[in-house]
Amino acid sequence: MIELRQLHPAAATELAVSLSQLHRQCFPEDPWPPAAVQEIMALSGFFGLVASEGCDAGGFVLAQAVADEAEILSLGVVPARRRAGLGTSLLAGAATQALNRGARALFLEVAEDNMAARRLYRASGFVLVGRRINYYRRRSGCADALIMRLGLAT
Ligand SMILES: CC(C)(COP(=O)(O)OP(=O)(O)OC[C@H]1O[C@@H](n2cnc3c(N)ncnc32)[C@H](O)[C@@H]1OP(=O)(O)O)[C@@H](O)C(=O)NCCC(=O)NCCS
């Protein structure tokens, strides 16, 4: 069974190291050091979740709610635990957290060439609402950033 654990900013120092390790496994080309994770956890309106199935943490989502909007800042599942529903559970959990904080919509940004994430987001109900041209640099050129939105208001 997938379990979601809420991240408490008050425990930022001890959590930042383990979250940084998780982030490194999920984004080996763009790892965030503990200090960067700590900065995100200190943001006003920060919320986050860690997903596990069994003992070890397998994925995380970091997000922020401001006024009536929330945004996913980072989402990742470690390679060995992918395609087992953790990403879907983390998104659903983040949507619930965002709604509880008064958000009416949840936004995120995804690289156009990240097909796994785009399929996950589409399957979770996100729709395309914007595009930042050539936002991501690639060895072989650039990729657009897609802005996606999930309506939360009932
Ligand atoms: C994107 C990511 C979070 C998906 O997590 P996940 O736990 O594997 O996702 P789920 O198991 O919940 O997948 C749900 C659905 O998304 C789609 N999907 C997920 N990974 C996919 C892949 N590699 N190829 C095609 N579709 C995929 C499928 O429709 C899948 O349903 P299915 O398994 O029944 O076919 C994970 O691959 C990851 O961490 N990638 C690296 C970091 C990253 O890109 N983060 C997002 C940045 S915007």
Any overview of this molecule?
It contains 4 helices and 7 strands; from the N terminus they run βααβββαβαββ. A 7-stranded mixed β-sheet has the order 1-2-3-4-5-7-6. It is of the alpha+beta class and 154 residues long. Helix 1 (12-26) packs across helix 2 (34-41). It has one domain: Aminopeptidase (3-Layer(aba) Sandwich). The site of coenzyme A has 19 residues, from strand 4, helix 3 and helix 4.
Count of separate structural domains: 1
User: What sort of overall outline do the alpha carbons produce when their principal axes are compared?
Assistant: globular
According to DSSP, the number of beta strands is: 7
Structural class by sheet pairing and helices: alpha+beta
Which ligands are bound? coenzyme A
What ranges have pLDDT less than 50 throughout 5 or more consecutive residues?
none
Span of the ends, CA to CA:
28 Å
CATH homologous superfamily name?
Gcn5-related N-acetyltransferase (GNAT)
Seen as an oligomer or otherwise, the chain set is single chain
CATH topology grouping:
Aminopeptidase
Helix-strand sequence: EHHEEEHEHEE
Beta percentage is: 35-45%
Strand order in the sheet with the most strands: 1-2-3-4-5-7-6
Number of helices: 4
Evaluate the radius of gyration.
15 Å
Average per-residue pLDDT, rounded, comes to 95
The CATH architecture would be 3-Layer(aba) Sandwich
What is the highest CATH level, the class?
Alpha Beta
Biggest β-sheet, characterized?
7 strands, mixed
Portion of residues in helices? 25-40%
